[in-house]
Amino acid sequence: MPITNFDFKEKYQYQNGFGCYFETEAVPGALPIGQNSPQKPPLGLYAEKLSGTAFTAPRHENKQSWLYRILPACTHPPFAPAPAPNESLGLGGEPFRRLRHIPNQLRWDPFDREPDADFVSGLHLLAGAGDPTVKQGCAVYVFAAGRSMAEREAFYSADGELLLVPQEGVLDIRTEMGWLLVRPMEICVIPRGVRYQVRLPAGPARGYALEVFQGRFVLPELGPIGSNGLANARDFQAPVASFDEDCGATASDGPNEYVVTAKFNNALFRTTQRHTPFDVVAWHGNYYPYKYDLGRFNTIGSISFDHPDPSIFTVLSAPSDHPGTSVADFVIFPPRWLVGEDTFRPPWYHRNTMSEFMGLIRGDYDAKKGGKGGFVPGGASLHNVMSGHGPDVDSYEGARNAELKPAKVGEGSCAFMFESSLMLGVTDWGLKTCQKVQETYSEHSWGGVKVHWKGGSA
User: Fold this and answer.
1) Which pLDDT tens digit goes with each residue over 317-338?
2) Is 76 one of the annotated binding-site residues?
3) Would you tell me which of 73, 333, 389, 397 could form a disulfide with 383, CB atoms 3.0–4.6 Å apart?
4) H-only helix segments in 32-136
5) Catalytic residue set
């Protein structure tokens, strides 16, 4: 079924397409016609350009949007340093300087729910590489929130583009450019600099996040697959304009205070302004947040023999400067049919020049057993550069001896992978403070791997 049946039903309208140039207005006539910055924009609005790439980036890479808002984003008092909400976020570059780079395979039990945290205070840096100040690298987070952000609060990251993967709970995300409802089995991408607020309409939420400091997420090239397949462009959804009107006669004399928090080199800064940041009445451009239903992914695989490379399951990719190599890919392992003849059907044993961080949204993963001490929803694993990994012993023996008839695997399940060309270091929070590392992961998974060798002596 090429669509997820969500328990929490959709409540917003969207514009469909990936990388499109959209225009939307919440009030008719708010968009200027034929130009971007007239002397007096319609309805007394201000024109503000939001640039996601350099002005002179090639046309096919250039990302920008024009926002038509009641007050421009610059109308606030100076930002001041804000206290760190936890020991991995808000401390500037220190967690990156203290990353632990180790070759061991790592797996985590499900991360704790945090009933007193909102999205920002419940966002934990787990692993990363590079430096956001030079726009190089990426970061892996987990988040757990028990309450909505305050009604008059907004957050943005100047560090990179953020991909959110909710595992439980519903995210009702208000952005400057409109609303996104994001449920488990959906993802969303928030571009660098876009201000937003996360509400929890169905109770506590938990999930994973990937931030790329360089470039942006794009659809992978399809090559010989042809013109359709994998994540199709028409299934991505962008918000329509929606705004509040809460301000005074000037930017500094409104009746209410709004707190805007910025993540800047992994440090937090805060300002309080006298008008809502969600006052964009209309916008047009190709730089905007969007979401995608993973149930619409058109899975492609082998119909003869052998398991293909997992790159065939790539939803989004953040390319590096080297063609074919990504800063990070977002890959999923959804329900799919396996029909390979004389084939070991789960993913094979592997050592990889890429780092592989995996999480489980729901169900069971066909190459790892669940249950206590296993790979379960809300948990994660990291197999770093050239660290050997693959099916655990029970999964291997089961697949090795299985009757090879057409079989559908992963029904009711979805695992995912953040794959990066970078060597990922793990934070102190990820290795120690969270207290979720499975110390016996390697022994549990591969300590009992059997010897099937039947050859003679050399």
Assistant:
1) 999 999 999 999 999 999 999 9
2) no
3) 389
4) 94-97
5) 307
